[in-house]
Amino acid sequence: MHDPHSLLQEASGAGLARRGHVLDRAALRDLTEQRARLIAERDKLRAEQNRSAKGGVRPDDAARARTAAAKERLRSVSEELREAEEGLAALLLAVPNLPHPDVPDGTEQDPPVVRRTWGEVPGFEFTPRDHVDIGTRLGILDQVRAARLSGSRFAVTRGAGARLERALAAFLLDLHTTEHGYTEHGVPHLVTRETMTGTGQLPKFEDDLFLTGAADRDLLLIPTAEVPLVNLYRGETLREDGLPLALTACTPCYRAEAGSYGRDTRGLVRLHQFEKVELVRICRPEDAAAELELLTGHAEAALRRLGLAHRVVELRAGDLGFAARRTYDIEVWLPGQGTYREISSCSDCGDFQGRRAGIKVRDRDGRKRFAATLNGSALPVGRTLVAVLEQYQRADGSVAVPPALVPYTGFSAIAPDGSPVVSAE
User: Fold this and answer.
1) What is the pLDDT of residue 120?
2) 193 CB-near residues (< 8 Å, 6+ apart)
3) Helix 4-11 crosses helix 61-93 at what angle (to 10 degrees)?
4) Is 277 exposed, middle or buried (0-12, 13-18, 19+ CB in 10 A)?
């Protein structure tokens, strides 16, 4: 949890204002003072009880009455203290990370801050279709039957489409584990509230999460593998010479997407369930800036290997995610929409998640500090499939397979009838 006094100092500056967050400083000050007063009173009452117990004098009726009153007051003070601490925790847990000083001002309504572009936007001698039309014509995407199973915002892939999804996941995991130094993990998809709180999903985004209940346990479906990967080290102190940690996992991601209805609801762009390869890095705070550049480069390398035209934009302060202090979005070109669309967000969270999850670093001199965490999508399987279908489409309705994926698919194209095309060696 944030330290109340340091948070008050930070809030007096422009950091939270740049994000558009208004902190109720009066409530924070009142709760902090109330907590301190109640702790002092509780400790005083406990000390008095200890002195009375050690007095050795048989108490008379008046003394017993005073003892009973002190016990009742101690019970009341302890309850008030619990409520004050819960109120303070709720207030502090709702405060987002502060933006890095180098992050540009503004919101998502302002023009994008483009840092670099890669690849030529593909040109076509025909009007390019979007991935829904392509997938439906090929018979590899079926959202009608998916809706029968689960309602809207779900998808079924079939045949060569399902094979292409599986190939993408395997390719991405192989790339990041063999060339970029990440250690692959298999992690739970159901986690506790404490786990979600450690990375910042709770309490802020409770409406976006799917809650399950079995017997006497409430568990939540993960919205990203970042949640279990970061929390693997919750409450631990890591040795400085063992950092950075580089972790990856491919998991389903489950998101209610509360408030997003009407936006990107066509096709595979914004689903309630999708697969994603996630990258997480845990490091010393002073290394976080360099680690962000490295992590973003790893996500870009996946797109370059697939030959997908894209660009990197930096988010403005008012557009940052709750836990991020700096974010680069990678946007891939979608010919069917005629625009760049986000395919990955790579974020430096500083020590924000380290504080919430209690992850510390022990320096060589024995000093302990909170660790910095970074995360990025590299890549979401569904949105990458969207980009492949749209950038590699052909006039006859077929789709070429990026050469990097051919060893994983076993075919080099999807024919107009949806069947795989195996090239002769």
Assistant:
1) 94
2) 202, 218, 220
3) 40
4) buried
- CB neighbour list of residue 205: distance below 8 Å, 6 or more residues apart: 223, 322
Please write the tens of the pLDDT for every residue from 215-225.
Answer: 788 999 999 99
pLDDT at position 15, please? Answer: 87
Task: Give dist(CA 196, CA 128) in Å, integer.
Answer: 41
**CA dist 156 to 117, 149, 386, Å?**
32, 10, 14
Question: Is the preceding peptide bond at 59 cis, omega within 30 degrees of 0?
Answer: no
| Distance in angstroms (rounded) separating the CA atoms of residues 361 and 245 | 12
The model's pLDDT over 54-65, given as tens digits with 9 standing for 90+, comes to 766 676 777 778
DSSP code for 360: E
Q: Measured between alpha carbons, how far is 247 from 226 in angstroms, rounded to an integer?
A: 9
Give dist(CA 386, CA 268) in Å, integer. Answer: 7
| Range scoring the smallest mean pLDDT among 39-43, 232-236, 370-374, 377-381 | 39-43
Q: Say how far apart CA 210 and CA 201 lie, in whole Å.
A: 12
DSSP 206-261: GGGS-EEEETTEEEEE-SSTHHHHHHTTTT-EEEGGG--EEEEEEEEEE---TT-T
R_g over Cα of the chain: 27
Cβ atoms of residues 253 and 233 within 8 Å: no
Cα within 13 Å of Cα(305), Cβ side: 19
Alpha helices in 102-247 (DSSP H): 131-138, 143-150, 160-178, 193-199, 226-231
Question: Phi/psi at 359 (nearest 5 deg)?
Answer: -95, 120
Question: How high is the pLDDT of residue 199?
Answer: 97
The model's pTM: 0.90
Give 420: exposed, middle or buried? Use CB within 10 Å, 0-12, 13-18, 19+. Answer: middle
In DSSP terms, 221 is beta-bridged to: 190
Indicate the residue type of 400: A
Dump pLDDT digits (tens) for 12-30. 457 899 998 888 889 999 9
Q: How far apart are the first and last CA of the chain?
A: 60
Q: Which residues are catalytic?
A: 255, 270, 342, 345, 383
- What is d(CA 37, CA 51) in angstroms, rounded to the nearest whole number? 21
